[in-house]
Write a structure and sequence with these properties.
15 helices; Serine Threonine Protein Phosphatase 5, Tetratricopeptide repeat; 329 residues; 2 domains; mainly alpha; Arc Repressor Mutant, subunit A
Length: 329
């Protein structure tokens, strides 16, 4: 028994290797979900990656890139949500936190200098833009001081952003040209390069071989068997169900009436909420942006574009009329 226990490697080393495989696999899955825009799956893999990273006593050199990338993507995904905090300092927004991890990633590789610089500047610009979109112009000025050093290379962008903040207009050409969507697109380009480098991940390869060995035929046969069993079960339940047609119809009518009453109550409540709900500064900005994008009168398109909360196209039209009157004085 003693000889058998000595023959295997230490359990700690085995666990460390397995954890490394799992972290690399989680990072690949996180990248893929970020790329395809599946929010629910991205959140699921964010939780997995976060748990694995927290389990590390120290970050092995060969895993630094994967850890930094996971942390970056998790923060970029929450970039527009200023209420989310990843740092003890509550002044630090998700994008400002993301910038620190992007800086660490830049140090890990030197061959992507142009892409690195583009993404770095996009994050800096969007940190300011998100504050401005929410009407936090004081915070936008403060973050500008934290973002830029006194180096000459940073001076042109810093001066441009300072001018933008003074204008208090989050829809100036600079912020539109270097938008959040452009940032996401650049991050996706970086992810594609990362995924090509990590095609040899052990768990991915093992899972691929397993799926290929099972073949499509086995999966199709299993699916057919399950569907047949479910159909048989439904038919059996239908035969065993008592035939009380009159009572059943009466019960169905009552249920329908109750359902209609509930819908009516819900509709009235929703209408009441809509009437009471004040327009926020952020909603006004979304409305102005939508009018710029689609033109006056296309309220249905603007409603979808702006993702307004409990608003209707008629309410958008009325609010636009009010804004125009305010502007005319």
């Amino acid at each position: 028994m003693a000889a058998a226990s000595r023959s295997g490697p230490p359990a700690g080393e085995v666990e460390a290797v397995a954890a490394a495989w799992m972290l690399e696999f989680a990072c690949c899955c996180l990248c893929r979900r970020f790329g395809d825009g599946c929010a629910a799956e991205f959140q699921r893999w964010s939780d997995v990656a976060h748990a694995l990273i927290n389990g590390l006593s120290k970050i092995p050199t060969h895993q630094k890139k994967a850890v930094y990338l996971c942390q970056l993507l998790i923060r970029i995904a929450k970039g527009k949500k200023l209420e989310c905090h990843f740092e003890n300092d509550k002044r630090i927004s998700p994008l400002e936190s993301a910038l620190s991890f992007w800086t660490l990633l830049e140090r890990e590789e030197v061959e992507l200098e142009k892409l690195h610089k583009d993404i770095h500047q996009l994050i800096q610009i969007q940190i300011v833009a998100v504050y401005m979109e929410n009407g936090y112009f004081k915070e936008a000025s403060e973050v500008l001081e934290r973002l830029f050093t006194d180096s000459e290379s940073d001076k042109p962008l810093r001066m441009k952003l300072a001018t933008v903040i003074k204008s208090k207009d989050p829809y100036v050409p600079l912020l539109q040209s270097f938008s959040y969507n452009v940032l996401i697109s650049k991050i996706k380009s970086y992810i594609e390069l990362f995924m090509k480098e990590n095609e040899t991940n052990f768990l991915l390869q093992a899972a691929t071989k397993q799926v290929e060995s099972q073949g499509l035929g086995a999966t199709a046969l299993q699916s057919t068997t399950v569907n047949a069993d479910e159909n048989d079960k439904e038919n059996l339940e239908a035969k065993q169900r008592p035939r009380s047609g009159g009572k059943l119809r009466g019960r169905t009518v009552l249920q329908s009436l109750n359902s209609l009453q509930n819908m009516e109550k819900h509709g009235n409540a929703l209408a009441s909420i809509r009437k009471r709900q004040r327009w926020t500064y952020k909603e006004d900005l979304k409305l102005k942006s939508g009018v710029k994008e689609f033109g006056v009168g296309n309220w249905a398109k603007i409603l979808v574009y702006g993702d307004f909360n409990n608003r209707t196209s008629v309410m958008l039209k009325d609010r636009w009329r009010t804004l125009c009157k305010i502007q005319q004085g």
